[in-house]
Design brief:
By secondary structure, this protein is mainly alpha-helical. It has one domain (3-148). It is 58% helix and 0% strand. It has helices at residues 3-20, 31-52, 62-84, 91-109, 118-127, 133-144, 149-156. The relative contact order is 0.13. Mean pLDDT is 80; it is low at 151-182 and 186-193.
Length: 193
């Protein structure tokens, strides 16, 4: 096995271990949503490690891999927060959280990273209450997934990116909880990502 592949596999495992041990990624989600988010994080980690091991880039050191793991954990946590706290936070907080999600995705994948546009953010905020958690997680994952080499090559020939899948309708939500302007909860000793 080439050294590049071994390094990529080792880095992917290191990043995936960081995801597995970070409970903030799963807090507030039901098991199916948490599992889906963690699985996507593991797939993202594999793609990210392949990007780090690309032959045209300098080989990262362990600190750089750990920083990538930290940023990916923050991205996953913010996606969780968008879903878990959507009924407790106002539009300004949700917009700031989306902006952080976009920033973290760019930090990890570069300037051409998939992001959620301002128009998509406004539509998501307006429509989220009619959608269940699992559909919201799936929608965000679809919008923010790292491009695959095949999709990058296909997109290079077109001027427009394929549209993100629409939000799936759901059963009417239960009564939203009262507005809470505080930050998401933390436990003593936890460092907010």
């Amino acid at each position: 096995m080439p050294v590049q592949n071994r390094d990529s596999d080792r880095w992917a495992r290191r990043i995936q271990d960081a995801i597995a041990t970070n409970s903030k990624i799963r807090d507030g989600l039901h098991d199916p949503e948490a599992i889906r988010l963690v699985e996507w994080g593991n797939t993202y980690a594999a793609k990210l490690s392949t990007r780090l091991a690309a032959p045209d880039t300098p080989s990262p050191d362990e600190e750089q891999v750990d920083n990538a793991a930290y940023s990916l954990a923050r991205l996953l946590t913010r996606i969780n927060w968008l879903v878990s706290y959507r009924h407790k936070k106002d539009a300004t907080w949700l917009t700031r959280t989306f902006q952080m999600v976009n920033s973290l995705n760019r930090e990890l994948l570069g300037d051409d990273a998939p992001v959620v546009s301002d128009e998509e953010i406004a539509a998501w905020i307006a429509e989220h209450s009619a959608t269940d958690d699992a559909s919201l997680i799936q929608d965000l994952i679809a919008r923010l997934s790292p491009p695959t080499p095949e999709s990058t090559e296909a997109d290079a020939g077109s001027d427009t990116a394929p549209p993100a899948p629409p939000l799936a309708p759901a059963d009417p939500p239960s009564t939203p909880e009262p507005f809470d302007n505080s930050d998401p909860p933390s436990r003593p000793g936890d460092n907010l990502l």
